[in-house]
Amino acid sequence: MALTTHVSQLDKTQTPYKIDPEQALRASQALLKHVKAEVKKLQESGQKRNLLAAEGSDDEDEAADAQPIWLNLATKQYITDKHRLKPSKIPVPHSLNTNENATICLITTDPQRAVKNAVADATFPSSLSTRITRIIGLSKLLARYKSYEQRRQLLAEHDIFLADDRIVSRLPKVLGKVFYKGTAKRPIPINIAPKDSNREKSKKVPKEEREAAVASPTVVAKEIEKALACVPVTLSPGYNIAVRVGLESFTPEQLQDNVTAAADATIQKHVVSGWKNVKSIHIKSPTSLALPVWLADDLWAENTKAAVTENADVAGTLQDMDRELSGIKRKRKVNTTRGPQSGERKKVRLAEEKVREKEDAAGRKERLSAQKASVFEDD
After folding, report:
1. What is the pLDDT of residues 115-162, one digit of tens each?
2. Is 123 found in the same domain as 61?
3. Are 178 and 152 in contact (CB under 8 A)?
4. Is residue 16 part of a domain?
5. Residues annotated as region Disordered (predicted)?
6. Average of per-residue pLDDT values in the chain
7. Number of structural domains, the chain?
8. Does residue 311 share a domain with residue 209?
9. pLDDT tops 80 at residue 228
10. I need a surface site. Which of 72, 193, 294, 367 has the fewest CB within 10 A?
11. Separation between Cα atoms, residue 273 and residue 277, nearest integer Å
């Protein structure tokens, strides 16, 4: 099924740095229609539904009944120059984690008993506590899940992983590439430390006691619900950000709302220079084409354009100098030892020429000797 759409023209009175709601809705409708048609086709052919996932994609462990929709944001300049394994959280109007059967694994500081007591408290929402099937401390995580297979089993047993913000930066070394080769199930940080942790720190309370402190059950529940209502954003060196903003089960209007909210928040929070640094915004499924939601009219960054404009006269002068230098270079002899060809490359080239000359001389001597021998044989 061909996926076709076009970018609507913006009114001249409107700012270009804004997603057109009509265009976002058209792209959402076309993409969801395509995904559902592909799923129906696979079901009719008797193939497994998870074959729709692209080979080697980050959603290898995605739930069988929910194919993800990704927002791809491309920028004109680098977003970051280093790989950030700790994801940030972007709130969206429609949560991707509303499935009541989705299980949650909560990774906490030591001792884990404090968090277990908070979850078991009567004030903690029962609808949320039933979904938390495992609470494990960092030390027990290190002791029980040492091998690759044990970590892979842990990954398969749970749908969502949450981690205490105080230890989330240590988890990449503990969990390894099983969790961090993709982005689908990376632990999402939650802040469950008590609000008076700064006051306790000022009183020089031991670090072990500060890390063991946990907020009230109400605050813990609120932080977990807040994390479930957000989408994680993981930054890597480059010009692209991929954010999972929807599911196949969404309506076009829900997907449109999430796309707009996620794009605005991601640009505001992570993209230097904001919308002026954005080149394009697309949405796609693991196997579909990328449908455009927003395309920049100007592919150059503002600071680059300003630099070129300010130095236009200098650029013209440099071009004249380049033309003059190219004329001088044509007049130079090939075997000169001055100029840009001098140095190691020049020495290597001269050595190769000497070797070739010796080989040619030796070849001429052999040919002359052969000619003389043939003359004497004829006589």
Report:
1. 999 999 999 999 999 999 999 999 999 999 989 999 999 999 999 999
2. yes
3. yes
4. no
5. 190-210, 326-379
6. 78
7. 2
8. no
9. yes
10. 367
11. 6
Q: In Å, how far are 30, 133, 329, 342, 349 from 339, measured between CA atoms?
A: 60, 73, 9, 6, 14
Q: Quick one: pLDDT band at residue 282, thresholds 50, 70, 90?
A: very high
The answer to the question of residue 138 being in a domain is yes
Do 189 and 308 share a domain, yes or no?
Answer: no
Q: For the residues 164-189, what does the mean pLDDT come to?
A: 88
With 80 as the cut, is the pLDDT of residue 310 above it?
A: no
Question: Which token pair is 77?
Answer: 């300049």
**Token output for 74:** 């491309």
Instruction: Indicate whether 102 and 40 sit together in one domain.
Output: yes
Please identify which residue in the block is written with the tokens 């949320």. Answer: 128
Residue 236 in domain: yes
Alpha-carbon gap, residue 357 to 325, rounded angstroms: 32
Asked if residue 4 belongs to a domain, the reply is no
Structure tokens at 190: 């939650």
Map tokens 């099924």 to a residue. 1
Say whether pLDDT at 13 is over 50.
no
Give the single-character DSSP code of 216: -
Nearest CA among 225, 182, 176, 186 for reference residue 107: 186
Same domain, 258 and 311: no
Q: Does the pTM of the predicted model rise above 0.70?
A: no
Domain that holds residue 307: 302-331
